[in-house]
Amino acid sequence: MWVLIGDSEDVGMGLVINEAKTKFQSSLRVCRAPRINGVPITRVPTYKYLGVQISHKKCVQTVTHVRDICLPRLAPLRVLANSGRGVGIPILRMFYISVIRSLIDYAAIVLVQFSMTQLRPLELIQNEAMRIILGCPRTAKIEVLRAELDMPSIVFRIQEIACRATSRLLCSGAPSFKQNLTYLHHNPRYPVTPFVKKIVSLLRSVGIMEECLGVITSPRQPTWRPHRVSVDIEKLTQRKSEWIPQVLRNHFLLKLSQYSHRQVIHIYCDGSVDGSKSGCGVLIRDYTTPDQYTDTEVTRRLPHHLSSTRAELYAILQALHTVIALNKDVYIFVDSQAALYELLSTSPCDCDLVNKCFVAIDGLEQSGARVQFVWIPSHVGIKFNERADFLARQALQDDTVDPGAEYTLGYIRNKIKTYVSNTITDQLEHCCIIGSTSSRHYVDIIHNSHHTYGRHSALYDVTAMRLRLGYKYYWEVSGSPAVSCTLCHQPRGHSLKH
């Protein structure tokens, strides 16, 4: 088996290969070099493609290459920190994430195959960066620094990105890859590449194997053929929380009265999420004349672990399916701007539900009906919207039908994020168990006080950080005269009991 790697250009409907930049790799010991347009292609053991070293086998050169790129970028970080007298901790953290760690994130899919020992050089770079950001000595406990900056170790960061990329690939549609994962999950001896085995082992360790295999397939819409829907989202002159509810209600009631009430359908949709439970409610008013109408109420218990936006989209889809045979103009009033922007987006997160909504809208429009979505504010006293909200909350009480769990890309991402966040806490707790004094001090501090960096001067943040992390000054251990604390101005106020 051999693989061509190189550069190419699109010409018309074809693909033109640049023979000078193209190389090939092979897993066979003896392999005849391929020829393209009569030009022999050179065989290479490793190849730098878009800044990442690619090879059939694990090559430590990949880790070394990333390390060599990251190391020089610690110098400007030191200049910005200026030994605690430079920019603040939030800016230093942002600089590290965007300028240094982003290089590791970019190569994460290739780096995931390496062990913790082999990734140690990259871990050391992050450790040094955290010491620079916080101005800590080399004796500082790394687990405490990770907790203070909310940064997982490089190993877990690489695992997070690899899991997110795998779930996204499965969600967008990759039947052969999903088939290999499924076979290997049920039959450990199934012949696949070592990389796929590593991915399966990783998904199991993170605890998302079943979720990835059952994730909803949601191929993206072609951006060159977006579906156009009519959505009216009125921009408020100020934030909703700054409005008096009665004023906002009267404003939108006046707006709703201007829509036709003859031979049309008005729909109010709402979704509700309480913990892992979710449901949706729909109020449909079918007008014959302004004084003659028929009301229909729909409640539906939805699968577990849905986002509020997905619950709102379910409510819209339920409403469209209910009125699709009536062949009347439809006005759908929704209090979720996120759901309406999903309908307008060319690459929505919940593309499967959005596509189903488009199919129903196409059915109505082909029959001559018109569909328009209108945003209305929630919880301001609009009668019909409050009724839809009540129906959605009532659906949560329906325990007779339990549809089970629906594994969406958003749900898997949240689970991965929770797993990585827990690794920071678990490592800190382990240090406390084995008797680390600084770790115990830090845990006591964060349980009894809270500090947000960036709200005061950089010097203030550095002083507060040293108190939180428990670093003693030289004068405290050398018997020097007492120095007043820069926070409370008390002598010897920098002690750990401050």
From TrEMBL:
Q: What's the catalysed reaction? A: Endonucleolytic cleavage to 5'-phosphomonoester
Q: Which UniProt keywords apply?
A: Endonuclease, Hydrolase, Metal-binding, Nuclease
One Gene Ontology MF term: nucleic acid binding
Check the record and name the InterPro entries matching this protein.
RNase_H, RNaseH-like_sf, RNaseH_domain, RNaseH_sf
Q: State the Gene Ontology BP annotations.
A: DNA replication, removal of RNA primer
Q: Which SUPFAM superfamilies match?
A: Ribonuclease H-like (SSF53098)
| PANTHER family membership | RIBONUCLEASE H1 (PTHR10642)
- Name the UniProt record assigns to this protein: ribonuclease H
From which organism does this entry originate?
Petrolisthes manimaculis
